[in-house]
UniProtKB/TrEMBL annotation:
The protein's required cofactors: Zn(2+)
PANTHER family: C-U-EDITING ENZYME APOBEC-4-RELATED
PROSITE patterns in the cross-refs: CYT_DCMP_DEAMINASES_2
Pfam family, one: NAD1
Protein name: CMP/dCMP-type deaminase domain-containing protein
Amino acid sequence: MEPLYEEYLANRGTIVKPYYWLSFSLDCSNCPYHIRTGEEARVPYTEFHQIFGFPYGPVYPQTKHLTFYELKTSSGSLVQKGHASSCTENNTHPESMLFEMNGYLDAARHKNNAIRHIILYSNNSPCNEANHCCISKMYNFLIMYPDVTLSIYFSQLYHTEAEFPASAWNREALRSLASLWPQVTLSPISGGIWHSLLNSFVSGVSGPTVFQPILTGRALADRHNAYEINRITGVKPYFTDVLPQTKENQNIKAQAALESYPFNKVFPGQYFQVTRGQPQLNLTPDLRVPVIFVLVPLRDLPPIHVRQSAHKPRIIVRHLNMPQMSFPDTKDLRRPPMGMPVERVEITEQVASTKEADEKKKKGKK
């Protein structure tokens, strides 16, 4: 195996070129070391807030991709933690770098058979667009290592809404990836996972700051993500709803606060209403009202034991070599391409022609 990456020892971990040909660039502040391990993987709180939208909710527009990861044994022991950042110069997503064949995770698993569980914490859900093919690379990695389980947590869905030209591909790829359950789980970041991220991957945060309240805007965004990923994949995600729902007085106070402020910074153009069921449209919550809940420290979930399934998962080979389509030209597939000849039939003179024929017949009889 000839690795694509180059790894160098740093003060608090290692720094990695995901592709050996990368070099320092003025167009990308993270080049060439997009993968960092150990304590080198920590990011400033301001960067975490901007990219992951914590504690207030998603921040728009969002152009950066950042993925934290943990490699664990079957017993849950941590082998390595790190992060991967997107490359703005080469337009490469973190998941594409990590799961590249002969890439970093491929080499790590090849050298250490004890790695049985990979956990990703990303600001965006993985996509399968033609320039990235993140989900296809994940899928191929899991086929190559069937004894490895993958848990994916995200803070917002990426290009799954209908207005994005590649949304159908992304939704179908997410369904195909989710069909590998229980080897794969797709869930929104929620509850104590936020505090675990602050503790493990954010620098300059300690003590009470780690366990700061999850504000209403963030909690509603997490609930919305859980609803949407369930709707897309048909698989119920792991999700902790921290919005108060047990005490009637808390519900009344929360509802009154939620109806006081616009929600357009979290979901532009949409408003949601919190009920006992799923989020509904037309709500205006307060993004800065802290959620009152009993904090339960995050416990590592037991490793998922993969067993043979009688149902063969859908293969997504169709995503591996997607055509380089020009997305602006595919916004409305129902319209004919420009320049296509269109046949027009004029029928306005049909009645007049019939009358003339009748008059000629009458004259002939005379």
